[in-house]
Automatic annotation (TrEMBL), chain A:
GO molecular function: FAD binding; oxidoreductase activity
One Pfam family it belongs to: FAD_binding_5
PROSITE patterns associated with the record: FAD_PCMH
SMART domains, per the entry: CO_deh_flav_C (SM01092)
Protein name as it appears in the record: Carbon monoxide dehydrogenase
SUPFAM superfamilies: CO dehydrogenase flavoprotein C-terminal domain-like, FAD-binding/transporter-associated domain-like
Automatic annotation (TrEMBL), chain B:
Key word Oxidoreductase present: yes
Domain named Aldehyde oxidase/xanthine dehydrogenase a/b hammerhead: residues: 34-143
Family matches, as NCBIfam families: CO_dehy_Mo_lg (TIGR02416)
Annotated Pfam families: Ald_Xan_dh_C, MoCoBD_1, MoCoBD_2
Coiled coil: none
Cofactor: Mo-molybdopterin cytosine dinucleotide
Entry protein name: Carbon-monoxide dehydrogenase large subunit
Amino acid sequence: MQVPAPFEYERATSVDHAISLLERLGGTARLIAGGHSLLPMMKLRLANFDYLIDINDLHGELGYVEAGPDEVRIGALTRHRELLESPVLATAFPIFADAERVIADPVVRNRGTLGGSLCQADPSEDLSAVCTTLDARCVIRGPGGAERVVSMEEFHVGPYETAVADDEILVEIRLPVRPGCGSAYAKVERRAGDWAVVSAGAAVWLDGGAIVDARVGLAAVGPNTTGIPAISAALRGREPSESLYEQAGAIAADSCDPVTDQRGSADYKRHLAAELTRRTLRRAVERARS
Amino acid sequence: MTTVHERVDTFHDNDQKPVGYGRMLRKEDPRFLRGRGRYVDDVQLPGMLHLAILRSPVAHARIVSIDTSAAEASPGVKAVVTGAMLAQQNLAWMPTLSNDVQAVLATDKVRFQGQEVAFVVAEDRYAARDALELIDVEYDVLDPVIDARRALESDAPLIRDDLDGKTNNHCFDWETGDEAATEAVFARADVVVSQDLVYPRVHPAPMETCGAVADYDAVDGKLRLWSTTQAPHAHRTLYAIVAGLPEHKIQVISPDIGGGFGNKVPIYPGYVCAIVASIVTGKPVKWMEDRSENLISTGFARDYIMRGEIAATRDGRILGIRTNVLADHGAFNGTAAPVKYPAGFFGVFTGSYDIEAAYCKMTAVYTNKAPGGVAYACSFRITEAVYLVERIVDCLADELGMDPAELRLKNFIQPEQFPYTTKTGWVYDSGNYEPTMRLAMEMAGYDELRREQAEKRARDELMGIGIAFFTEAVGAGPRKDMDILGLGMADGCELRVHPTGKAVVRLSVQSQGQGHETTFAQIVAEEIGIPPSDIEVLHGDTDNTPFGLGTYGSRSTPVSGAAAALVARKVRDKARIIASGMLEVSVADLEWEKGAFHVAGDPGRSVTIQDIALRAHGAGDLPEGIEGGLEAQICYNPSNLTYPHGAYICVVDIDPGTAQVTVRRFIAVDDCGTRINPMIIEGQVHGGLTDGVGMALMEMIAFDEDGNCLGASLMDYLIPTSLEVPDWETGFTVTPSPHHPIGAKGVGESATVGSPPAIVNAVVDALKPFGVRHADMPLTPSRVWDAMRGQARPPI
Ligand SMILES: Cc1cc2nc3c(=O)[nH]c(=O)nc-3n(C[C@H](O)[C@H](O)[C@H](O)COP(=O)(O)OP(=O)(O)OC[C@H]3O[C@@H](n4cnc5c(N)ncnc54)[C@H](O)[C@@H]3O)c2cc1C
């Protein structure tokens, strides 16, 4: 058994309570959601905090998937399993179920949360790639109930670093809804439940035969999950075709920045960025059409 | 208890209640399935303290100073011990199982990342762990030797300067076979194929990590040690030698063990530290390593860099096999193998083929990596040997343009050639290879698979079919040839039949999941006719079981299984004499039918083994010269190893876009001689095949150039899950061992030995359209992709 360093622990009773605790304790405190990223690091003593503020009792307040006319709103404490099983997401953004099926295992999915995944800011985090693909907005609440909304590009400021300040909490993710959407996710892993060697998400919005907009998000090929504007630019206004997917794949391979490690060589990861971009775009278009 | 039995009765596996061999559910399962197993970490003693070990963060460094004062002052800490303090008691170093020495706690230098440097004993595990951070060690970092190929270069840093007169990193040289004869057959062969192969470092990674609870009683001088050991008796003797404690005052208890795979054969510094700590503090002390400690510091396996060469005639007759091996033994030679076999049983690398000559030359070196060598279900390096021969036979098939099944069938040792002496001197006891191979091909639908593959290739789809045929050599001794640090590899066994006809059998071997409590009850049941449910199997406690060398190298059934059968026969012989008195006939007039003696020609006059047991303990007269009681003890010394064999066929599909390998089918036909409990055999095979998928596709303990272990957690060191493996298709043939009392051969490691080459052969076969002839394990998507582009690289 790996044992963490000493820490104190308190359960928050409301979002505002959690924020007031954070305000008081500052950088020595950490929120704990599902704990599936935080606890392994603490047990390995890679991360040591004096205080843990448990927000799991806030699931009533922060665990939801709600469809509005312009956007889908997801509470930060919504668990992987709830995302996997959400009928709203299955209809609007099947990319979620694609991704959730290959994230970790049922034990982790029962506890791990959307907010924790995004706040962990791991470059390989699948839900970050999904949210990048869908151009998500992140709602961050701070002292006095002040809320600000940031894009994914702003939210992730480096590996394991986010725009959330020490006295703030991520409360909600908003996904813009536009007509003609199709989305898909694909991941290459060495073994079920392993982190991605590379994964890719794609979303397209079609009008008639043409692509109105398209987005691709990649995980594990750079400091943060990467959205690739050049792909969006290349695809907008075009008819979907194999050669277009080829072109998008080539852009993906060019614009990512993978490193060689135990999961694979940088060359291979570049190749996968292209391959998975092609596959997910193809799938997203099929879904948008059906 | 009754409800348990009613429930299990509904399982189809229990539809027979064999009095002897046959399918039956494992007797130990109710306790494991209900979470009632009792492992070392479940041992709680009054006043028990906890021990944590400080490990080296670097691979190679001189220790300049260690300051323990802050740790000593930390709350709850009872003692902090360093190598210097152990040295004062002459305990800083201990012998390894290969006659090398290993530091218990480093005194002069650290020689691998994760090496033990100091330990803390405290009131609880947290306090002990917290105090580790307060120990201040100053290291003078030295260049490490990580690549075994560089170990013998003249400017390589010297690792073992603790050994007198040592000037290089050479560990040992070893050779077998006939070099000149082999050279001669290679010179006249039509075809010679040579291939470099790496069997990378892998780790057994048992679910339960290693640990111990030491309880030294200063009043009666007795040490009780609960520990995760596969060889409790051998460990007891070694502790007596190392620590100078009298052997009768040491009791080693190996309770339920959560997997061993060889990882729990060696004596680790942590066990010795726990003993020292208990003696120093006068309290029981628990040490339980965590997952990372297990992965970075305990016995690994493989790490063989091999060149295989095979010579044949143009029409596919194999003439000779030759190999050159560079073996990486880590910082200390901690290999657990019989002492006369520094390379284990690698000498069986000639496989299942009748060839004219063979030769192996091996050089072993020290590197700045964790010690070990033989662990992970390898039958003392037969895993490496089988991988070598089965891979190069496939390379030869490729070169000859011959079907790999046909090439194997053409070269098998024939049934009438057994006992067969190989060109490296091993005497294979029995075998009948062709039917085993044909059965596997039939189950696989081999010809149909080849047709499917041809169609798929035409469509640029990647499908591969891989074959491996192995001969194992398991069940060490004989004791005259095989010993571990002077302890002969023989096994004791004791059987007592109680007055009511229930029995207890005491084994010297210890189970780590092999189902001994069931199998051994069945072996005894078969011989004396007492139902397995009425036979208690005791093992793992040196005060309560006879001496023997333990469970590894698939030796339990070949050695202790024989002992159990023979001890039961001894009891039956005595029972026969008592029966003759009870029935008032001569011994010669009695006939044995399982569980009873009856008078020949008069089956109505009979006594059961239970009647006899009662008489043996009762008040009535016994025949002249017969003592009361019904029990016996023996020590079994095997006359030879047993040689199980098997034919494995693997079918893989590879995604051409991502290079991901899927094992679609796996057919395993095993021949382990007499089958005692087929369900347990299948379980052993399923586990071993899963191991094989892990090694072939994902497992590897890698190091960076500074010697940092890159496999220090199960996030980094991948082991397969049910999602990576297909539904196993198992079959069997039966070729009994002629010298084993019940004809049984071991099966514990067959599948681990046989499956990796089958999988690699399948992947290489799938990649044939890319001109690939070989690719080393682990065949991760990235490495397969490299191979597809003609850039296959060794993993180290
Ligand atoms: C075995 C295993 C396999 C895994 N495999 C994958 C995988 O394949 N793909 C993948 O994407 N992920 C994987 N994960 C990670 C998993 O998805 C985690 O659940 C997720 O990364 C973190 O969610 P959590 O709720 O557990 O966060 P926690 O561990 O509780 O928290 C993570 C961090 O986020 C902070 N945090 C949490 N919630 C908030 C909030 N609302 N506001 C501000 N900060 C917050 C915490 O303070 C902490 O710093 C795996 C995890 C494990 C244990």
